[in-house]
Amino acid sequence: MIMGFAKDFLWGGATAANQYEGGVHEGGAGLSIADVMTNGSHTVRRQVTWVKPDGETGSTPLCFGSMERHLPEGAVPVELNDPKYYYPSHVTSDFYHHYKEDIRLCAEEGFKCLRFSMKWSRLFPNGDDETVNEEGVKFYSDVFDECLKYGIEPLVTLSHYETPLNLAAKYNGWDSRYLVDKFVKYAETCFERFAGKVKYYLTFNEINCIEFAPYVTAGLIHADPQNIVNATFHQFLASSLATKVAHEKYPDIKIGMMLAYGPTYAYTTDPEDQLLAQQRSNGTLFYADVQMLGRYPNYKLAQYKREGLTIPAQEGDMDIIAKYTCDFLSFSCYGSHVVTLHDENAEAGEGNGGGQPHQVRNPYLKTNAWGWATDPQCLRITLNTFFDRYHCDLFCVENGIGWNDQFEDGTVHDDYRIDYMRANIKSMRDAVEFDGIPLMGYLYWGCVDMVSNGEGEMAKRYGQIYVDADNYGQGTFKRTPKDSYYWYQKCIASNGEDLD
Ligand code: BG6
């Protein structure tokens, strides 16, 4: 007999503090690396603003989509009080002041789970303070209470592109081992202070994106390949040590890893293209190999050796990584990638996420205005790839589509978003029903409109709930359900059976 989604399947939505929360200068919070990133667009890269010891100021595109890997010598990232720069994270959708309304709307939509990230520097303003900022604890505690009031399970990402700015400026972020203990202290504080309220945590959002945006992902203001290897290792270690604390002291808590993944297809049957696709896929799965299987895979060790890179492991570190793997694998999946060696014009930047050479558009798929393609099989293929390799519980914690929505007749008629969701949820349902994949839940990314990460603009909206705010934080911030809100409500009510 074919079975659908489990009765306790966690339907819901996902957000991140730096794109959604706002209130950056409120409640005693410190800044994170995201708070000094300017706005941008599909054609204009976001910048990180900085100051040098002699007072010279400027900005450098250290964000997604840029190949820049260094701030100028001696410069540190800083918020500049200059009208030339606008920082979208400071206001965004102003969840800080609208959380009750947003959570109520999500509850009415039928959500069983809501993913937030906690801003580390709201709890520890410098990232390494001795004591926790009680106002920050209260804010998140209130948010979780509000969720629980409606029976919504909060899922918390401890680090979603939000390394405390102080740690980036002083230590080159996760390049330094200094951050490991600080993160574990922050994680343990959360486990303790939110005990009984939060059961599911993710350690690092899209941990593999360190290769494309080392500043955004790990606070690196200087990112040569060795710095990236160091930072990656330190995040693995910190994740394992946080998992150790959870397993030993808070057995009800489950810790997930979080991987950005989309299947990579070879454009031709040329074995060279097939090999390239496999290598690309392994390049991503490496992170899950470590966090779910507890060891660096041979292909990665061989690559490091070839490239003269070393893992900064100290005695006992690898045993920790081997012993404290994550409890489940969570992932974002927006679409797929296509690679080939047969197209001289293939550029970095094509397709979802972009940023890698030899990528081309998939002629079978439609793309949105930002070049992201909807692939109706990507979730089924992804889930099978993961389950075959890791045999563990899986959780889709991001999937969605950004669009330049038009607000008309008092709402947004986003049939393109409904089409996307229908195709993706169907693909996921097939994986569960026909392939027997154990899936914990599905969280639609950006359920409430918020600033996009790559572009730092509000115009690329993902939400099922419209927020009346523009790219510069101007507007009434009124919330309005879009057509997709009602579609998803119906889908959830039928536990994924009704996709009409
Ligand atoms: C994921 C991130 O990469 O994709 C989110 O975890 C991000 O933070 C989402 O918002 C969509 O990307 P973007 O750039 O369109 O916001």
Describe this structure as you would to a colleague.
The chain is built from 14 helices and 16 strands. It is α/β, with parallel strands linked by helices. An eight-stranded parallel β-barrel has the order 1-5-6-7-8-10-13-14, surrounded by four helices. Strand 2 (about 50) and strand 3 (about 55-60) form a beta hairpin. Helix 2 (about 95-110) packs parallel to helix 4 (about 135-150), helix 12 runs parallel beside helix 13 and helix 13 runs parallel beside helix 14 (about 485-495). The mean pLDDT is about 95. 6-O-phosphono-beta-D-glucopyranose binds next to loops.
Give a brief outline of the structure.
This protein has 500 residues and is α/β, with parallel strands linked by helices. It has helices at residues 17-20, 95-109, 120-123, 134-149, 165-171, 178-193, 214-218, 225-249, 271-293, 298-306, 317-323, 378-390, 415-435, 483-493; strands at residues 10-14, 48-51, 57-60, 76-77, 113-117, 153-159, 200-204, 254-260, 264-266, 328-332, 337-339, 359-360, 393-398, 439-445, 465-467, 479-481. The strands form four sheets. An eight-stranded parallel barrel has the order 1-5-6-7-8-10-13-14, surrounded by four helices. It has a three-stranded antiparallel sheet with strand order 3-2-4.
- Strand residue percentage: 5-15%
Strand order of the largest sheet: 1-5-6-7-8-10-13-14
Structural class: alpha/beta
Residue windows where pLDDT falls under 50 for at least 5 positions: none
Taken in chain order, the helices and strands follow as EHEEEHEHHEHHEHHEEHHHEEEHEHEEEH
Helix content: 25-40%
Summarize the biggest pleated sheet.
8 strands, parallel, barrel
Q: What is the CA-CA span between the terminal residues?
A: 23 Å
Number of helices: 14
Shape: globular
